[in-house]
Amino acid sequence: MPAQLLDGNALARQIRSELTTEVAEFIENNGVVPALAAVLVGGDPASQVYVRNKRRDCEEVGINSTLHRLPETTTQDELLNLIARLNRDDAIHGILVQLPLPPQIDSRAILEAVSPNKDVDAFHPENVGLVVQGQPRFLPCTPAAVQQILVRNNVSIAGQHVVVVGRSDIVGKPLAIMLAQRGPGADATVTLCHSRTPDLGAFTRQADILVAAIGKPKFITADMIRPGATVIDVGINRTDAGLVGDVDFEAILPVASRITPVPGGIGPLTRVMLLVNTLTAARQLEM
Ligand SMILES: Nc1nc(=O)c2c([nH]1)NC[C@@H]1CN(c3ccc(C(=O)N[C@@H](CCC(=O)O)C(=O)O)cc3)C=[N+]21
After folding, report:
1. What is the extent of the structural domain holding 73?
2. 287 has pLDDT over 90
3. How far is the CA of 49 from the centre of ligand 1 (A)?
4. Residue 1 pLDDT > 90, yes or no?
5. CATH code: domain of residue 224
6. Domain Tetrahydrofolate dehydrogenase/cyclohydrolase catalytic: where (predicted)?
7. pLDDT by residue (tens digit) across 56-102?
8. What's the CATH number where 53 sits?
9. pLDDT in tens, 115-140
10. Ligand 1: which of 236, 237, 243, 262 to mutate, most ligand atoms within 8 Å of CB?
11. How many domains does the chain contain in total?
């Protein structure tokens, strides 16, 4: 029997519908509309698509969204000035600075400038620290999307061996920490593999749940999967053959028990987590 598809689009739709009710209740109780400010520097085509989809998502659930488009030549000071303004603006609850930023800008300095209370990406060091300590203010969006697709499809995590491939600061590293945490939706045994792991297949074949977050098209092949494993594909690679993930989907389908597609897997859920975090930010700031 081929693997069950874990449908990110359907789950994203369901969570947006839950959020629509919660946002309406928030507005009713507080007389304030949750609001997200997105900052886009330059014209990276993938970023344009992402920001456009995100604005549509906000509209669907009743969150206000504003987009600040800055030219490719924006200086660090100009961007810092905009962030300072958004930090002070009481009508704005969440701030997202779309990555990557142009080379003249120091991304780290920018992410540290966003108020931790409005940091809906959870990229600020204070929020990263809170996640590590198991006291999150916001969960980082893509790791939260992976956790939710597992939890909401009743995939057991506790006591399972999760192998994460990729140690980025925005996906692999925080996800490994979140799934190893004590508590619901966690309690896994986690192995974090990366580009310097020798004999990667020896590790991935031990995975009950394999998460691919490497950023290389079809990098995970069928021989690297334990029969019956759950495979989560975080990759979004634009190739001549279209959008493909980090796993060789067709070849793995007959081996795995469950698998996420690309597109339509973790991507749409990542955007939903941004909405969740914006509502959380509004609740915390309007208390
Ligand atoms: N500050 C910041 N926060 C981010 O969360 C962030 C970022 N910068 N920079 C870029 C990456 C990438 N990312 C995606 C989210 C959703 C899809 C997504 O919805 N993908 C659809 C396909 C969309 C398409 O067709 O292009 C899918 O997988 O089905 C893709 C990529 C968020 N990122």
Report:
1. 32-115
2. no
3. 8
4. no
5. 3.40.50.720
6. 6-121
7. 999 999 999 999 999 999 999 999 999 999 999 999 999 999 999 99
8. 3.40.50.10860
9. 999 999 999 999 999 999 999 999 99
10. 236
11. 2
| φ, ψ at 169 (rounded to 5°) | -70, -20
The token pair at 204 is: 């991935």
Same domain, 261 and 160: yes
Q: Which residues contact 123 (CB under 8 A, 6 or more apart)?
A: 111, 114, 140, 169, 170
Of 8, 59, 68, 67, nearest to 34 by C-alpha is: 59
ipTM of the complex: 0.97
Gap between the Cα atoms of 220 and 233, Å rounded: 9
Task: For residues 7 and 10, give the distance between their C-alpha atoms in angstroms, rounded to a whole number.
Answer: 6
Q: Tens of pLDDT along 206-256? A: 999 999 999 999 999 999 999 999 999 999 999 999 999 999 999 999 999
Mutate to test the pocket of ligand 1, among 105, 270, 272 (most ligand atoms within 8 A of CB): 270
Shared-domain flag, residues 155 and 208: yes
